[in-house]
Amino acid sequence: MDLYFSCSLTGGRNDQPAYAAMVAYLQTLGHLVLTAHLASEAAMAADGEQTPEAVFERDTAWLRRCDAVVAEVSTPSHGVGFEVAYALERGKPVLCLAREGVRVSKMLTGIRGAGFDFRTYRTQVEAHAHLESFLARY
Questions:
Q1: Quick one: DSSP state of residue 127?
Q2: Is 113 left (phi over 0), alpha (psi -120 to 50) or beta?
Q3: CB 131 within 8 A of CB 25
Q4: Within 13 Å and on the Cβ side, how many CA atoms surround 48?
Q5: What is the DSSP letter of 37?
Q6: Residues ≥6 apart with Cβ < 8 Å to 87
Q7: Is residue 21 packed enough to be buried (19+ CB in 10 Å), middle (13-18) or exposed (0-12)?
């Protein structure tokens, strides 16, 4: 599958190692992660040369192209919220993952409906199990 991985950039990068582990795992399962660069330590620098308009056009094109979205939502992010809503409006399946114990917006945790799943995890092994379970449905 072609996947869009969404995570915080400007909101904070404390969870970057978790992002990297999730993207690497998705790739080992054979998925193409269109936004794999977001999981790297250099993600901010990689997009630094891009205008906001270019990033918007590129990312919304990837969202339209992808088969599903995986969003790590432990760190609040305007961009991630936008990407989740954009994907859902286009009928894309979305999995939101958050570390157990963090506060996540009720706008995300309150979503009900086919194609949306919200899960918490304590370990990367648990996060990987959620990824596999979600992707097996699509």
A1: H
A2: left
A3: yes
A4: 5
A5: G
A6: 4, 63, 66, 69, 94
A7: middle
Residues in the chain: 138
Q: How far apart are CA 121 and CA 133, in angstroms?
A: 13
pTM for the model: 0.94
Helices marked H in the chain: 16-28, 43-47, 52-65, 78-89, 106-109, 124-136
pLDDT digits (tens, 9 = 90+) for 25-49: 999 999 999 999 888 777 666 677 7
Question: Per residue in 97-135, pLDDT tens?
Answer: 999 999 999 999 999 988 999 999 999 999 999 999 999
Q: What does DSSP assign to residue 36?
A: G
CATH of domain 2-136: 3.40.50.450
Report which DSSP code applies to 33.
E
Pull the structure tokens for residue 98.
Answer: 């958050």
DSSP assignment letter at 74: S
Give residue 21's identity as a one-letter amino acid code: A
- Residue position matching structure tokens 């969404």: 6
| Domain coordinates in residue numbering, the chain | 2-136
